[in-house]
Design brief:
With 505 residues, this protein is an alpha/beta fold. 40% of the residues lie in helices and 12% in strands. The protein has an 11-stranded mixed beta sheet, sandwiched between helices. A two-stranded antiparallel sheet has the order 4-5. Helix 4 (98-116) packs antiparallel against helix 5 (124-140) and helix 13 crosses helix 15 (444-452).
């Protein structure tokens, strides 16, 4: 059903653009006076943005000047460094007990949360009860290992999710003061699916207010601090989730994304985050409830430290819709076609991509060429400059608004079933707390991919010169999530993936 919906939407977009192509051409043939006026407006907006950039750098540079970075406690329990997949295998084969694993992550949360403020409600006692039940099932021998691996692939493994996704018995505030006393009376669909897979919900994490801003701070729980530098943001709205995962407080988790709410936090916190193809994963049980065309833009997806956990977790979240994907297909990255865009197209209100992030992207391009003889092709999409108004127009159900998706729909061969696009996750590394106010529209680097309904995987690329995570998003065509996920695995091998923010003895 999801596949038919996407196909129908693409056909609609094609016909829409063809119908209006002549009028669009006439519109572009503007008088010299109109062109001059547009140039002046563009220049004015660009000047305003540059002024705000300079002011914010000065103000926040002085505000945090000389501030020492709060160091997280070192990792003393190596269980915390395991992937969720590895933990599941070790629990199932009795090399570890679920209770031992759950206790390890509970202890880690208790020592890091006073510093990071990423966890906002917990079910530790119930999680331990669930863990003991899982251990009892395994010890009983009534179900063999092979069957457990198929029916309950994450039996006994704890997980976390953002506050806006319902976990029965835990608060679901969506960062709103008016919802501060609301407790979920049933699980969201994705949480229920995780329980059925044997995973154990452990806690919920902080979000931005109403999940509509890209810093996780609200009047209910306050703000969350970046694990690499406490004066920096964690992103939003899945910011608390990305923070907890990066700081080894949970092996994997679930986020949601309507304009970058999985990918931006994953980028700022140096982990992997996947925005699925639209319509694959259920959004039921989330607050706020998306309406109108926003229903198509909103997706729910996996977040984790290791790329090997992405597909197993995504398969669970996709449930029966996993059959619409090719998650089990082996991808030879040498047979893919690669394209890249390294800026936002010169939009006046958007911060250009920093030199260090451009260099990180170029290292990816260079790696592909040196390791596999693959020459990635740089492309320019003219409508990308209008990405911001396009996103807001489509979010507001303006049917006649031009879309980034239309441009790609008529150039379907750009990605096809064997192409991926390398695109910046964000123009800068994690900003200081409150600095997004001076850069309000920089979320468009991720948001425009929501408009296109494409799957996209944020991949960490090591740390910047000042110790903050670098990264890039890999975009694929509809229902070709397996391609971006395969490239994520390759980039992890090539560049090391997640870098622990704590000292590891």
């Amino acid at each position: 059903m999801a596949a038919r919906g996407v196909k129908s939407r693409l056909e609609k977009l094609r016909s829409h653009l063809q119908r209006h192509s002549s009028s669009s051409t006439q519109h572009l043939e503007q008088t010299p006076v109109t062109v001059d006026r547009m140039k002046w407006v563009d220049m004015l907006l660009r000047t305003v943005r540059l002024f705000m950039e300079v002011v914010s750098r000065l103000v926040f540079g002085l505000m945090y000047r000389g501030e020492s970075r709060t160091r997280l406690p070192p990792i003393t329990n190596l269980i915390l460094l395991e992937s969720a997949t590895s933990l599941a295998t070790k629990i199932r084969t009795k090399k570890l007990t679920s209770e031992e694993v759950v206790k390890s992550f509970i202890a880690r949360i208790r020592e890091i949360n006073p510093i990071l403020n990423c966890v906002v409600d917990t079910r530790f006692d119930q999680a331990l009860e669930d863990a003991r039940s899982a251990d009892a099932l395994i010890s009983s021998g009534t179900v063999d290992e092979e069957t457990l691996a198929k029916t309950k692939p994450f039996l006994g493994v704890p997980f976390s999710t953002k506050d806006s996704i319902a976990v029965k018995g835990l608060h679901q505030t969506a960062g709103l003061w008016i919802r501060r006393e609301i407790v979920a009376d049933e699980d969201a669909d994705v949480v229920q699916l995780m329980r059925e897979a044997g995973a154990i919900p452990m806690c919920v994490t902080n979000v931005s207010e109403l999940c509509m801003w890209w810093e996780s701070a609200n009047t209910v729980y306050g703000r969350t601090n970046n694990p690499y530098c406490s004066s920096r943001i964690v992103g939003g709205s899945s910011g608390g989730e990305a923070c907890l995962l990066s700081a080894c407080g949970s092996p994997f988790g679930i986020g949601s994304d309507i304009g970058g709410s999985i990918r931006m936090p994953a980028f700022f916190n140096g982990i992997f985050g996947h925005k699925p193809t639209s319509g694959i994963v259920s959004n039921l049980g989330q607050e706020p409830v998306a309406t109108g065309e926003a229903c198509e833009f909103l997706v729910t997806g996996p977040m984790c430290r290791y790329s090997k956990d992405l597909i197993p977790l995504y398969r669970i979240l996709a449930a029966s819709n996993a059959s619409l994907l090719s998650l089990d297909s082996k991808v030879d990255i040498r047979n893919l076609r690669y394209f890249y865009i390294d800026d936002e197209g010169g939009a006046p209100l958007i911060t250009p991509v920093s030199k260090e992030l451009r260099a990180a992207q170029q290292k990816v391009v260079t790696h592909l060429e040196k390791a596999y003889g693959i020459k990635a092709k740089k492309i320019i999409l003219k409508k990308l400059k209008a990405a911001l108004p396009i996103y807001f127009a489509k979010l507001g159900n303006v049917e006649e608004a031009p879309t980034f998706c239309e441009e790609l729909a008529l150039k379907k061969e750009l990605l096809g079933d064997d192409g991926v696009l390398l695109f910046p996750s964000h123009p800068t590394v994690a900003p200081y707390h409150s600095q997004p106010i001076f850069r309000p529209f920089n979320f468009v680097y991720t948001a425009i991919i929501n408009v296109a309904l494409f799957p996209s995987t944020q991949c960490p690329l090591g740390l910047s010169s000042n110790g903050l995570p670098l990264g890039i998003q890999v975009v694929a065509n509809h229902n070709n999530d397996h391609l971006s996920l395969a490239v994520a695995s390759e980039l992890e091998k090539a560049f090391g993936g997640w870098v622990c923010p704590s000292e590891v003895p």
